[in-house]
TrEMBL record:
This is PQQ-dependent sugar dehydrogenase. SUPFAM superfamilies: Calcium-dependent phosphotriesterase. It comes from Gordonia alkaliphila. Pfam families: GSDH. Residues 103-277 form the Glucose/Sorbosone dehydrogenase domain. Residues 36-81, 357-383 are annotated as: Disordered. Residues 1-31 form the signal peptide.
Length: 383
């Protein structure tokens, strides 16, 4: 049975709150969504007829939409209509910035910037945190506060010169450490964070290049744990151990299941966190380079940067605990190397890491964020 994720209804509420917060933020200076806002405020009401006997005039034509207008010119305009952010530095965490996923929050790993963007702009930096971007460290991941409308706080997993840590970023880029001392290495620093509830932040850490540390209960390397980010000295509660490098959390908000993708000693793998530990759902011994994962519409998608593809597997259920044979989606021509990803409704946002992956296409608009829909998986059982 899947491990129940505490506060699942609250988790759904957090997603709704985050989208609402993003919409308000977008309308208050981080991005210009004034047209969308005016349309939303207008509602669905129509003008009532005045009862006059004159001939009825045809309604005016609707205003042109973005799709009807020619794209602007410039070096950062991508012809792919699914692309919603361009000319970024090396990306890490990504979050949808509206319910339809047409705008995005994305982190630049080496610069420490969190940027909001929509197709054809504008693109603005909403926060910057000092980081050590050497190796695979830097601004590893981020989340909006569950009470963002009130406190304007952003939480982040970052690398410093001495450790990896969880911090809180306030208005004006004021940074406060929340949890310090997470092991840092030359590699194996990439992890992930996500809120379960306002008092529970889930954190996944890489093994910092030390496989033994991942199984050491005294180390925070290679772990999934939770903390209360509101406490001055939160005590981590470890819920799973033994993870490798580039650890990505994939919570399923519908079922409450938690999946984790990483690259361990046995190869790249997708695992499910259960009451008794972790269960491997699929492994890739050829090591195609796992860099991210997301769950949308009952499908788990896993990005493979070295193989330039996204594999899709059917999420397990009580009736069918197997995930089926992954369907491989070649994304090299369209997107190149994909890193982190996140879901919204039935689709996902994916962030490319072409600037750091050998053999990636040298697209002039790298790096980018795009909307992506998975293809599911076959009915064959995983054997």
């Amino acid at each position: 049975m899947p491990l129940p994720i505490p506060g699942l209804p609250a988790r759904r509420a957090l997603a709704v709150t985050a989208v609402a917060a993003i919409t308000v933020l977008s309308a208050t200076g981080c991005a210009d969504f004034s047209d969308q806002e005016r349309s939303a405020n207008a509602g669905s009401f129509t003008t009532m007829p005045d009862g006059g006997g004159g001939p009825q005039q045809p309604p005016p034509p609707p205003p042109p939409t973005e799709d009807d207008q020619p794209p602007p010119s410039g070096p950062c305009v991508d012809p792919n209509p699914a692309v919603i952010a361009t000319c970024l530095g090396t990306t890490s965490g990504v979050r949808p910035a509206d319910p339809e996923g047409k705008s995005t929050y994305v982190a630049e790993r080496t610069t420490g910037k969190i940027i909001i963007s929509q197709r054809f702009g504008p693109q603005r930096t909403v926060a910057t945190v000092p980081v050590d971007g050497g190796g695979d460290g830097g601004l590893i991941d981020f989340e909006l506060s569950p009470t963002y409308l009130q406190d304007q706080m952003i939480y982040a997993l970052i690398s410093t010169g001495s450790d990896n840590r969880v911090v809180r970023i306030a208005s004006g880029d004021s940074v406060k450490p929340i949890l310090t001392g997470i092991p840092k290495g030359a590699t194996g620093n990439m992890g992930s964070i996500s809120f379960v509830s306002p008092t529970e932040l889930r954190v996944a850490t890489g093994n910092a290049g030390n496989a033994a540390a991942a199984n050491n209960p005294g180390s925070l390397a290679g772990k999934v744990f939770t903390i209360d980010p509101n406490l001055s000295e939160p005590r981590p509660k470890i819920i799973a151990s033994g993870f490798g490098s580039n650890v990505a959390l994939c919570p399923d908000l519908e079922s409450g299941s938690l999946y984790v993708a990483d690259s361990g000693p046995e190869g790249d793998r997708l695992q499910q966190v259960e009451a008794g530990g972790v269960r491997t759902l699929w492994s890739w011994p050829e090591r195609p380079g796992i860099t991210g994962c997301a769950v949308a519409g009952g499908v788990i998608s896993v990005s493979m940067a070295k193989a330039f593809r996204i594999d899709s597997l059917s999420a397990p259920s009580n009736a069918n605990p197997a995930v089926g044979t992954p369907q491989q989606g070649d994304v090299k021509e369209q997107y190149g190397a994909v890193g982190r990803m996140t879901s919204f409704g039935p689709a996902m946002q994916i962030a490319t890491i072409n600037k750091t992956v050998s053999g990636a296409p040298p697209t002039s608009t790298n790096d980018r964020v795009a909307i992506y829909t998975s293809s599911g998986s076959s009915a064959d059982d995983n054997t």
